[in-house]
Specification:
Layout: H1 2-19, H2 36-71, H3 75-93, H4 102-106, H5 108-112, H6 119-128, H7 143-153, H8 158-164, H9 168-202, H10 211-236, H11 257-273, H12 286-292, H13 296-314, H14 320-353
Length: 365
């Protein structure tokens, strides 16, 4: 009897080992016939790399305009650098979902768009002039939110803001912020064009560590956390006892946070549809993947739900901080519409793709 039990145990062990993949994951996946290489190639060549290139160009323009502004801090040059900042911030919305490859290694997103920025940390850095902007402790004192503060929030009037830039420490800090954003973006771009593109396109097996599965997860994580929670849920107070309007995006500019959110939503829809822009034809992407799996119903529903969420967002105040303070219910309604998309992506789409969630959900969805 003991011998039979022993033999049975060995057989179970052999079966368990044979079902594990070569990545160490215990999850087996049934392959499908969809051309994942074509999807990854379209994503890399027509969406990801061009968006990073556009951001790098916008940041270089911001750097050039900053040189003029800091050399001659007058109203015209302040207006110009503010415009360059807004243009680059919009381009950032198109890059933020791509937290993979070198971006993940560098913790790129944490260096570019942690908000709200911490004013005390910024002012302390400026005052002492001794700082490491790459340090994790400074993640809330760098990137677009910090530049937003430096261009719109360091004083109450434009005249007083211009006066700040007669102080060399303010000039240096603003210049250092922009230089770091430029450098990090160049590093990410260089990796994509010289190395990671090949990895991304060819790592298409259905395993936890493959580039395609990681990208699918990163895409959903960005939608759930970066877009739904950060832009809407947290400021609206969905996860807290009261609303937190000061945790909205671009609070010092005070006019662009709704537009940033719409750009971000348009971008995730274009990625989903495999489109370089809203006006280009649908390419190889998640939509066509679902259709190939005979889930046209779900493919269509996701687009419908994104469109419904966009309508909710378009009805909000141009400044989401103001929207929360005036009528947070409308912010919550936008959040709820986005949450329906999350369900379709995170539950239904992942199930159709036979891909497991690879991140920890902390807010109870």
């Amino acid at each position: 009897m003991k011998k039979l039990v022993y033999i049975f145990a060995i057989m179970l062990l052999i079966v368990a080992c044979s079902e594990s993949d070569d990545t160490g994951s215990s999850t087996s996946a049934t392959p499908d016939n969809y051309n994942r290489v074509a999807m990854q190639t379209n994503l890399a060549d027509n969406i990801i790399i061009p968006r990073i290139q556009n951001l790098k160009s916008a940041l270089q323009t911001l750097s050039d305009v900053n040189n003029t502004f800091t050399a001659t801090p007058n109203q015209a040059n302040l207006d110009n650098i503010r415009a360059a900042f807004v243009s680059a911030y919009k381009d950032w919305q198109l890059v933020e979902p791509f937290n993979i490859g070198q971006a993940e290694i560098l913790q790129y997103n944490f260096k570019m768009n942690v908000y709200p920025t911490t004013v005390a940390d910024i002012e302390a850095n400026i005052a002492n002039g001794n700082y490491d902007l790459l340090a994790a402790a400074n993640n809330d004192a760098v990137g677009f939110p910090a530049v937003d503060y430096m261009l719109h929030g360091i004083a109450t009037t434009d005249a007083d803001i211009l006066n700040k830039y007669t102080n060399a420490n303010y000039v240096t800090y603003l210049t250092d912020l922009i230089a770091q954003m430029n450098s990090l973006t160049q590093n990410v771009l260089t990796d994509w064009t010289t190395n990671y593109r090949t990895v991304f396109i060819n790592s298409t097996e259905n395993t936890a560590s493959s580039a395609v599965n990681k990208f699918i997860n990163d895409y959903i994580f960005y939608f759930e956390k970066g877009l739904r929670a950060n832009k809407f849920g947290i400021p609206a107070g969905v996860f807290s006892a009261t609303s937190l309007s000061d945790k909205a995006e671009a609070i010092y500019n005070g006019t662009i946070s709704r537009d940033l959110a719409i750009i971000a939503l348009d971008n995730v829809q274009n990625i989903y549809n495999g489109k370089a822009s809203s006006t280009t034809p649908t390419g190889e992407g998640f939509y066509k993947y679902l259709v190939a799996l005979d889930r046209t119903d779900l493919a269509t529903l996701i687009n419908t739900r994104i469109d419904d969420a966009r309508q909710k967002i378009q009805n909000l105040n141009a400044d989401l901080k103001t929207q929360v303070e005036v009528d947070s219910v409308k912010m919550t309604e936008a959040y709820d519409a986005l949450q329906l998309v999350v369900i379709s992506l995170k539950v239904d789409m992942l199930q159709a793709f036979n891909v497991s969630v690879d991140y920890v959900d902390a807010d109870g969805d």
